[in-house]
Design a protein that fits this description.
There is one protein chain. By secondary structure, this protein is an all-alpha fold. The chain has one domain. The longest helix has 33 residues. It is elongated.
Length: 80
């Protein structure tokens, strides 16, 4: 795999993950009651703690995107 191919792969992977993160934020912000009703039945979590867990999950996912998608793509852009 050449540097150009790897750069293109990481770039598109960053874009797709960012779109998925954005859609997840929209779902969490607009469909919180619907999600809470489903998850409370599946997991032994109190409903008050679910909002905290949603935000924690989204923050971790965002960090993973930065470290494994965006930073390597930026490093490749710098060396090209």
């Amino acid at each position: 795999m050449t540097l150009e191919q790897l750069s293109a792969f990481l770039g598109w992977m960053t874009v797709l993950n960012a779109v998925f993160l954005g859609v997840s934020w929209v779902i969490v912000l607009t469909g919180r009651r619907w999600m809470n009703s489903i998850i409370v039945r599946l997991l032994p979590l109190p409903e008050e703690r679910l909002n905290e867990e949603y935000l924690r999950w989204l923050a971790r996912y965002e960090l993973l995107i930065y470290f494994f998608n965006l930073m390597p793509w930026l490093a490749l852009q710098l060396i090209r």
